Fold each of these.
Amino acid sequence: MPIEAIAVGRRFRRDLGDIDTLAESIGDVGLLNPLTVTPGSKLIAGARRLAALRQLGWPEVPVYVVDLDGIARGEFMENVVRKDFTPSELVAIERALALRLRKEAKERRRAHGGTAPGRRANTSGNLPGVNGETRQKVAAYVGVSGRTIEKAAAVVAAAEREPDRYGHLVEQMDKTGRIDGAYVELRRLETWRDRTAVPPPKGLYRTVVCDPPWRFEVRAGDELHRGRVPYGTLSVGEIVAKTPLPAAEDCILWLWATNAHVHDALHILEAWGFTYRGTLTWVKPVLGTGDWLRGQTEHALLASRGALRLARHGISTVLTTGIRLVHSEKPDEFYRLVEQVCPRPWIDLYARRARPGWAAWGLEVGFVAATGPKHGTGARAVRRGQTADLPAPVGRRAASKPHGRASARPR
């Protein structure tokens, strides 16, 4: 179709973003997706591509013609091979069809004194059933569910409202065809935004446990393949910048990391001014997901700054539990260990629930102040050069305890 014959309606946004880069890409690899137009040459989908093609000076462009009237009437042949539309094109077709149906409804009302025959007067100011009817007709035409188009429409609408924050989701959705993945990521990002309403922690803490919502890297061939987590995720840079770290000058930090993020966690410790001391590995009772290897472990990286040290030596680097927990929840055994060897006050960042004696901060708990003593561990705080007066680890013989209790009687 001659490019000058394509008419662009007012419903397309004027700010089309970075057209130069798109034009360069089309110049290198060609136009991968034709424009979508009506039989009257009115553009339905592809405003950015049209602008890029005009910039490149293309006299003619490949198009796919969609008969909106035929879709509205449901008159299309099931055996006709139709184009595989991108998700954003589906949304554009739905919008164009909705606009056509609205105009027809207004004309019917105008011709019948304000109410179309067989319909009650619309006192709400909205056209009844238009969105649902439109969505089902488009869904029938392209062979997907109405719910799928609804999800795609939510992603496109979010990108139009805030292109800098959500625009990449539409690009990835169109590239991969994964509408569900884009929709889930949209909900995650919206959930993370709620965290800004959580007040920051008050005070400074000598022991900090941090379990950030890691964002998993995408696979090269599947840009929306991410672990399905019910919360907003953060990049490494966002974790460094957005985590409210209420660490005292002398502080011990436990930073939880998945197998895929151990390297990133080391960088975060350095950015926060902590020195890495060791890793505690939690062995879970069931296998998880993974690309090369299926994960069954998570790691708590131990770091410190200032003069503090653990109140007990000889702690194993392995923590084994037998109870399966909900996603991202950490075992009680870990917190009991921290309470035994780390000084108060304690705080749990990105916490799922509040714990006795702990301060907590996170989307699900807000900010909860600590209760109980403000100093000491299970016994007392320990600085470098001091000795701890704590019970020996479980399983050590009583004779080896310098301050231990008498041996238990044999059973």
Amino acid sequence: MQSVLESIYNDMFQMMYNTAFGILRSREDAEDAVQEAMIRLMSRGAALTFIEPDKMGGYIYIVVRNIAVDMLRRRKNELNGIERLRSNTMPYKEDSIDTLISCHEAAEMIEQLPEGQRSAVRAKVYLGVTYSEGAGMLGITETAFRGRIYAARKKLRALS
């Protein structure tokens, strides 16, 4: 079992880290998400051996994505409480606020997409995978992956 986990860590660390970083946008949080994913995978033990080798990447992607989304939700809840206490007198550069708002708006628009489209966009944009790699990660055909990206782009244009 230890060799399986070592193999997962050595072979998939970068994908796990990029997935978490794409969602969390923090190096420390992404590392924590990878660590949490490895703990979860370790706790599942022998169940990992029943996952087909060609589906393992997609399975691990989903585990990391779910952990990162949970961490993001917790962070947002914490920030909402802090924002209520904070006054609006903090000095900021105007450009940095506009950039922050644009990134935040884009992330919110992506969150409004259906799960399949959202996963495809995250894989393509945050991880920079090819269509075939993205299809393999999500366990779908390349044509289906391309269709999800197309539908997501269309929906995002309509939302903006």
